[in-house]
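Entry:
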Amino acid sequence: MAYGTHEVLGGVDLDVAAGEVVCLLGPNGAGKTTTLEVLEGFRVPSAGEVAVLGQDPARADDAWRARVGVVLQSWRDHSRWTPRRLLEGLGGYYAPYAVPGRPRPLPADELLGLVGLRAQADQRLGTLSGGQRRRLDVAVGIVGRPDVLFLDEPTAGLDPRGRHDVHELVHRLCDLEGTTVLLTTHDLAEAERLSDRILVLAGGRIVADGSPDALAREVAATSEVRWSRGGERFVHATDDATGFVRGLLAQHGDVEDLEVRRASLEDTYLEMVRRHEQPGAVPPARGVEVVR
């Protein structure tokens, strides 16, 4: 995807399997939202091929669109509507595309319960809080019981309870409905909690692809062992944490505050982006350090 001479995306190659939850991570401006918009059919790519559910999204028909759900970062509606009225109205567009085993739409009352808006069902949208509006955004995205769901920052602006509810809903859609989910987020804990696979996008290209554990092993095969002894704190990087700890305990039986720390998703993500921005840079090797 290019705007004039500025290339936003270049060679973004990916496959997402049915029922998979894939998270797209990347710094601001990396092209995450543009990637989703191409896959949703809102933008036509400058070059390349795109297929979602077997069709080119930019040219797909209404039957295809009935199988796709989209939760945008934000959207506008009429402040005098109510959640129930909005969902019932939108749901009517999906009814002609119901198929055996996948009736459409989801009943409005059931949907309101799923997203935690049953008490606000008949309030005007203009009176809802920001978090309640975000819950409604999610409800709009799944009213048609989509086969594929795109989530762009789905929990932005939600409190911890709201984030938990959305996470539970995503798990429910995948486990019970077989929904395929592609999401973007800046919340790395959310990405790790939800995703089967993570794609790291930097500079308009996918620079990493794998499960959170696989990416962590790729970035840092070593673990960090921390311990205290004689009032001093020590830290050591090792490829064999179990073997090192056994040797440590055999040599010093009075070790305290023993901790083995593996690379977190945040460590992994930052290292992936650093490698892209500073190719060839190698982190310094570390031996045993005394931390006072």
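DSSP finds ten helices and twelve strands in the chain.
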